[in-house]
TrEMBL record:
<comment type="pathway">
    <text>Amino-acid degradation; 4-aminobutanoate degradation.</text>
</comment>
<dbReference type="InterPro" id="IPR016163">
    <property type="entry name" value="Ald_DH_C"/>
</dbReference>
<dbReference type="Pfam" id="PF00171">
    <property type="entry name" value="Aldedh"/>
</dbReference>
<dbReference type="GO" id="GO:0005737">
    <property type="term" value="C:cytoplasm"/>
</dbReference>
<dbReference type="GO" id="GO:0009450">
    <property type="term" value="P:gamma-aminobutyric acid catabolic process"/>
</dbReference>
<feature type="domain" description="Aldehyde dehydrogenase">
    <location>
        <begin position="32"/>
        <end position="495"/>
    </location>
</feature>
<comment type="similarity">
    <text>Belongs to the aldehyde dehydrogenase family.</text>
</comment>
<dbReference type="InterPro" id="IPR015590">
    <property type="entry name" value="Aldehyde_DH_dom"/>
</dbReference>
<feature type="active site">
    <location>
        <position position="271"/>
    </location>
</feature>
<dbReference type="InterPro" id="IPR016160">
    <property type="entry name" value="Ald_DH_CS_CYS"/>
</dbReference>
<keyword id="KW-0560">Oxidoreductase</keyword>
<dbReference type="InterPro" id="IPR016161">
    <property type="entry name" value="Ald_DH/histidinol_DH"/>
</dbReference>
<dbReference type="InterPro" id="IPR050740">
    <property type="entry name" value="Aldehyde_DH_Superfamily"/>
</dbReference>
<dbReference type="GO" id="GO:0004777">
    <property type="term" value="F:succinate-semialdehyde dehydrogenase (NAD+) activity"/>
</dbReference>
<dbReference type="InterPro" id="IPR010102">
    <property type="entry name" value="Succ_semiAld_DH"/>
</dbReference>
<protein>
    <recommendedName>
        <fullName>Succinate-semialdehyde dehydrogenase</fullName>
        <ecNumber>1.2.1.16</ecNumber>
    </recommendedName>
</protein>
<dbReference type="InterPro" id="IPR016162">
    <property type="entry name" value="Ald_DH_N"/>
</dbReference>
């Protein structure tokens, strides 16, 4: 296990000013538990090098942490007000900004994304604490008129209880804050299992939560290795203490968690897989569409849940779009995320690289052509792959059905609005979608017909705290952020009063 000297050396090596942010144990009932007997290695995806060892939290410790969380919730329910919770969240927000650069560096070294991308994530992540600090005092309910003159119906929204949070590696800070902010604003306690690949960002937030004034037991974090992850997920789902699960990850895992939660009938909110269409109509501003594609397709080397996966380009503007896009992408620089010249870092692991390769090979075998890239970049590190653009991708290519989650831009021609809507909606997934047109009738028409929970019209940027974030179909259910975000962490109670 990492000693204080090792942690300080780690912080010095990467220019992290606040070494207190580097935590390698589990946060349980307000205490950091560092266990030397079982650890797992956190590695830099850019070069495969070992970064630091983190405690592989034992199941019995997690079970006790869940029990402690229930005790903390019951105590906090009696003592806290929305205004008080809002002040703590606001302090959390301020602390994230004070430690902004350090948090971004931690994110980059364990996730691989460029430092610019990491700074964008910390800005996004912290915004949820600001947002929900303002929402916490405003959890309103209703006084409902009764059909009986002597009766009154009064409703209230109450926190659901202990919440289990399961988060992915691609946004190791934001996927926690988006859930934690809403849960705490409602008055819930939380137990969090961060992604095995990126525990350091999560644990740094655990430290800042304590500094912000989170009461002990209201936030616990259990880092575990890949093998123990499935066991912890099952434990969360089957625990009678945990009343809600919030999960971001693959659809396959979401289905498994839903099945495991059936016996305890938990409240669930899932943000699952995507297969986002990106449509450029003949009347679009091509320059606007190209700029949007650069961000929403290749951000973090294509490893975001709302990345454009299928780019449908009208045949009248196809040549212009493909030429301009290829020119811009060719300017990007692959490299280690901490290199100031780097625009795009590695993929998270070898399996991700293999999936990109399989989608490229499939498309080429069916007639697609390589406009840019197309190969792995092992000279940079084991998990690097070229930013790749494929032209004339056929409609039966695998990438039309399967989310790549990597730096592959497939360009697919279409002729009519009816045709492209049929193609775009030919999927079980419905997280995000994008389209570009100057025709406002079309904007309303297509916006209403795309089967997606979130749609960008003439924009590729969707993420902000005020957006109800979530999908439909196999992309999950529930909404995070926005004025609706707290609802998933509350239950409505009604009191009927007679004799008035």
């Amino acid at each position: 296990m990492s000693s204080i000297e090792e942690i300080n050396a780690f912080a010095t090596k990467y220019g992290i000013k606040n070494a207190n942010l580097i935590k390698t144990g589990a946060l349980v009932n307000g205490e950091w538990i560092v266990d030397n007997s079982e650890v797992f290695s956190v590695e830099d995806p850019a070069n495969g090098e070992h970064l630091i060892n983190v405690t592989n939290t034992k199941i019995e410790v997690i079970e006790q942490g869940i029990k402690d969380s229930q005790i903390a919730f019951k105590k906090f329910l009696k003592e806290s007000t929305g205004r008080q919770r809002g002040r703590i969240l606001r302090k959390f927000y301020d602390l994230m900004l004070e430690n902004f650069d350090d948090l971004a560096i931690i994110c980059t070294i364990e996730n691989g994304k460029s430092l610019a991308d990491s700074k964008g994530e910390i800005t996004y992540a912290s915004s949820f604490f600001e947002w929900f600090s303002e929402e916490a005092p405003r959890i309103y309910a209703d006084n409902i008129p009764s059909a009986t003159a002597s009766k009154r119906i009064i409703t209230s929204k109450q926190p659901i209880g202990v919440v289990g949070i399961l988060t992915p590696w691609n946004f190791p800070s934001a996927m926690i804050t988006r859930k934690l902010g809403a849960a705490f604003a409602a008055g819930c306690s939380t137990v969090i299992k961060p992604a095995t690949e990126t525990p350091l960002s999560a644990l740094a937030l655990g430290y800042l939560a304590q500094e912000a004034g989170f009461p002990k037991g209201m936030l616990s974090m259990f880092p575990v290795d890949q093998e123990r992850t499935k066991e912890v997920g099952k434990l969360f789902c089957e625990s009678p203490i945990i009343k809600k699960i919030s999960f971001t990850g693959s659809t396959g895992v979401g289905k498994l968690l839903m099945t495991q939660s059936a016996q305890t009938l938990k409240k669930l909110s899932f943000e699952l897989g995507g297969n986002a269409p990106f449509i450029v109509f003949e009347d679009a501003d091509v320059d606007v569409a190209v700029k949007a594609a650069l961000g929403c397709k290749l951000r973090q080397s294509g490893q975001t849940c709302i990345c454009a996966n299928r780019l449908y380009i009208h045949e009248d503007v196809y040549d212009e779009f493909s030429t301009k896009l290829t020119k811009e992408v060719s300017k990007y620089v692959l490299g280690h995320g901490l290199d100031p010249n780097t625009t795009h870092g590695p993929l998270i692991h070898e399996r991700a690289v293999q999936k990109v390769e399989s989608h490229i090979d499939d498309a080429i075998s069916k007639g697609a052509e390589i406009l840019l890239g197309g190969k792995k970049a092992p000279h940079l590190g084991p998990n690097f792959h070229d930013l790749t653009i494929l032209g004339n991708v056929p409609k039966d290519a695998l990438v039309n059905k399967d989310e790549t989650f990597g730096p592959l831009v497939p360009l697919i021609k279409f002729k009519t609005e009816e045709e492209v809507l049929e193609l775009a909606n030919d999927t079980e997934y419905g997280l995000a979608g994008y389209f570009f047109s100057k025709n406002y009738s079309r904007i309303f028409r297509v916006g209403e017909q795309l089967n997606c929970g979130m749609i960008g019209a003439n924009t590729g940027a969707l993420g902000e705290a005020s957006l109800p974030f979530g999908g439909i179909g196999w992309s999950g259910f529930g909404r995070e952020g926005s004025k609706y975000g707290i609802d998933d962490y509350t239950v409505i109670k009604s009191i009927v009063i007679d004799g008035i």
